[in-house]
Specification:
This protein is mostly beta strands and 120 residues long. The strands form two sheets. Strands 2, 4, 5, 6, 9, 10 and 11 form a seven-stranded mixed sheet that branches. Strand 5 and strand 6 form a beta hairpin. The termini are far apart.
C-alpha cells in the first residue's frame, strides 16, 4: 500500500518561507519518483518538482525553479519541499505523489494534501 502524508502547510505573509514534508516508506523512496504538485481553487493541477529514486536527481517546473527546493531524507523517509519567497499566487493545496518518472508529471498515488495560504 502506498502511503504518502503531507505536513507543514500554513498561513504565511508574502516573502516568507515554508517547508513542506512528505512522509512515506523506505520502499517507496527506493522505487518511486516522488513529486510535489499543487492545486488552487478553480485551477488545474500544477506540477512543481520531482526527485528520482535512484540518484536523487531533481526536476523543477519553470514556475518554481529557483524558489522551491526538493530534497529527501532517507533516514527519516521523507521528501521535503522548501518554498522560498512565497507569493499570494502560491496559495494552494500542496500534494506529494508517486510519479511515473520525473518529468512525466503523471501521478499514481498522492496524499491528502496540505494547505498553503500566502496573504498579508
Amino acid at each position: 500500500q502506498v502511503q504518502l502524508v503531507e505536513s507543514g502547510g500554513g498561513l504565511v505573509t508574502p516573502g516568507n518561507s515554508l517547508t513542506l514534508s512528505c512522509a512515506t516508506s523506505a520502499y517507496i523512496l527506493e522505487y518511486y519518483a516522488i513529486a510535489w504538485f499543487r492545486q488552487a481553487p478553480g485551477k488545474e493541477r500544477e506540477g512543481l518538482s520531482c526527485i528520482s529514486p535512484r540518484d536523487g536527481s531533481t526536476v523543477y517546473s519553470d514556475t518554481v525553479k529557483g524558489r522551491f527546493t526538493i530534497s529527501r531524507d532517507l533516514t527519516k523517509n521523507t521528501v521535503d519541499l522548501l518554498l522560498n519567497n512565497l507569493e499570494p499566487e502560491d496559495t494552494a493545496v500542496y500534494y506529494c505523489a508517486t510519479d511515473l518518472f520525473c518529468g512525466s508529471w503523471s501521478y499514481d498515488h498522492w496524499g491528502q494534501g496540505t494547505q498553503v495560504t500566502v496573504s498579508a
